[in-house]
Amino acid sequence: MADERVAIPQSFKDARITPERYRQMYERSIAEPAAFWREEARRLDWIKTPEKVSDVSFAKDDLHIRWFEDGVLNACHNCVDRHLETRGNKTALIWEGDNPAYHHAITYRQLHNHVCRFANELKAIGVKKGDRVTIYMPMILEAAYAMLACARIGAVHSVVFGGFSPDAIAGRIDDCKSDFVVTADQGVRGGKGIALKDNVDAAIERASHEVKAVLVVKHTGANVKFVAGRDHWHHELALEVDARCDPEPMAAEDPLFILYTSGSTGKPKGVLHTTGGYLLWAAMTHEYTFDHREEDVFWCTADVGWVTGHSYIVYGPLANGATSLMFEGVPTYPGPDRFWRVVAKHRVTTFYTAPTAIRALMRQGEEPVKKHDRSSLRLLGSVGEPINPEAWRWYHEVVGEGRCPVVDTWWQTETGGHLITPLPGAHELKPGAASFPMFGVRPALVDNGGKRLPETGEAEGNLVLLGSWPGQMRTVYGDHQRFYETYFSTYPGTYFTGDGARRDADGYWWITGRVDDVLNISGHRLGTAEVESALVAHPLVAEAAVVGFPHEVKGQGIYCYVTLNAGLEPTQETEAELKQQVRSEIGAIATPDIIHFTPSLPKTRSGKIMRRILRKIAEGRYDQLGDTSTLAEPEVVDSLVEGRKERL
Ligand code: WT7
């Protein structure tokens, strides 16, 4: 059966990238990359225009990735100052509060003023070029000011998602030796306060690295502890500092930010992005993927604590002089119609969200959607995990009234921005397909033995990328060896994504999900090893193995097999305590869905846990357990299957 396809609507026939233009540009980006990228680089304002385009090697002894190396620019200038002349009075950011009565919009001129002051506040507390600044903020405009202020003075921000625990913040402060933290008294989500400043205090206490200064934004006015000499109120400092702050000239390869992300082993890695290539990629993909037009109101629902928020709330849209909406709340507060209410209220044209949100809202039926005017919408986007065709169709038909293309954008924290996505004016859509590579991107498939699969025709395997693109991460902060091991050692000469993919007969790419031990919970990335290490840190736990299993709303749920110390019987309290343990070590997003106590785990005779079997049991695919005769104690499997059935 031929796949269902959705044609390019009439309203996108005059899009920036038409089918013909896509073909020409893609071919040129591969055949003449230097010329292609030199032209694309013109979208940025350079203090010194780069002459060199790229210098890249994925080789073990010589791993380096450099783009526009001799160029000089400032990312904040590109996102703010350069628009003042032509867009000074245009809305740069719209803030929509958790409470629907609260909203606020600022122009590019106001943004400039806020960011310059914020930058001077950072200087006043001692921040210098190259210093790492940890940003632990709610979704308020000051989060964007803080990021841009860092970029303005050449400091490197490390945004930590506001849902992470004090332990998680402490680990990140220690890893990048961050002397400074920017936070708020409280965040608010779904009407409830989140004690951000308290979490920062606890994190600083636990961190081995000494934090010198904390800049605190007053958001809710909640009472917070203040440490004299260390803590500073933003609203007080703002009155003291100068309104003028010249942007620092930065080399294209100077670091812009670090963002921690989970992998299949060990602690989260600090993904490092640099200034020129990243900004170009964020701006270029924002323009092409979303067919950006001057009058658009762009709403990406992600949190700035994730890369999606970095690239598509802050850097991409602002570099393009767009109007970007930042939403503090959650999709279901005060009611399940909140998203659509906001769309109507601010006349959103481009809406970008995650499949998990779509699935959750789909369960609420069509009424909450249909009661709001969505005539302003022209384009919808999806990101974070594979979108199932049912959710895709609901998004397209119900939310978009069949009129708005849905761009399913595949990318990663490591890639800086979109790598595989349909372009709304260039490609017919197939529900669930990430579709085609962005300019300059060369996806390829390899089998488990490392053999490259043919470059055309139908194929399925592990997804790798041949060659580099400007938005690629440059290193794992402080651990270049780990950068090599994680991404370049599996299939030497290529970047391994950790995802599986299929290319169909029409050349469309379909992402099939992670092939490593990384979970995707509601579009949030989590390593099974991190959850395991949180579990075994509990004094009652002897051993733990964590796998994912299909979850109707979250995409994947967290399934934990736990062996307690000898002689201990599990109780409901133990289960609750273990869940709490994981929440407090990582954060609420890591809360286990199922804890399955077992006296032992299936292991090979050499003592290796057979995760493949545990995964199949968690998925309920008992018929696919394969050969279990090589296990040290094959009978464990039967008892685990029994235990799983009881939990279904
Ligand atoms: C992983 C990256 C990219 C920003 C948000 C997540 C999965 C992401 C898609 C998509 C299928 C997707 C992949 C990827 N993923 N987008 N459109 N279709 N899978 O960033 O936390 O770095 O996670 O998310 O598995 O490797 P991240």
TrEMBL record:
Instruction: Name the positions where Mg(2+) binds.
Output: V536, H538, V541
Q: Which residues bind CoA?
A: R189, G190, G191, K192, T308, S522, R583
The organism's taxonomy opens as: Bacteria, Pseudomonadati, Pseudomonadota, Alphaproteobacteria, Maricaulales
All copies of domain Acetyl-coenzyme A synthetase N-terminal, residue ranges = 22-79
Q: Name one GO molecular function term.
A: metal ion binding
**Named cofactor requirement(s):** Mg(2+)
Name the positions where ATP binds.
G384, E385, P386, D408, T409, W410, W411, Q412, T413, D499, R514, R525
Boundaries of each AMP-dependent synthetase/ligase domain copy?
81-468
Q: Where is the AMP-binding enzyme C-terminal domain?
A: 530-608
Family matches, as CDD domains? ACS (cd05966)
Entry protein name: Acetyl-coenzyme A synthetase
Q: What does this protein do?
A: Catalyzes the conversion of acetate into acetyl-CoA (AcCoA), an essential intermediate at the junction of anabolic and catabolic pathways. AcsA undergoes a two-step reaction. In the first half reaction, AcsA combines acetate with ATP to form acetyl-adenylate (AcAMP) intermediate. In the second half reaction, it can then transfer the acetyl group from AcAMP to the sulfhydryl group of CoA, forming the product AcCoA.
What Gene3D superfamilies would the database entry show? 3.30.300.30, N-terminal domain of ligase-like
**What reaction does this catalyse?**
acetate + ATP + CoA = acetyl-CoA + AMP + diphosphate
Modifications made to the protein after synthesis:
Acetylated. Deacetylation by the SIR2-homolog deacetylase activates the enzyme.
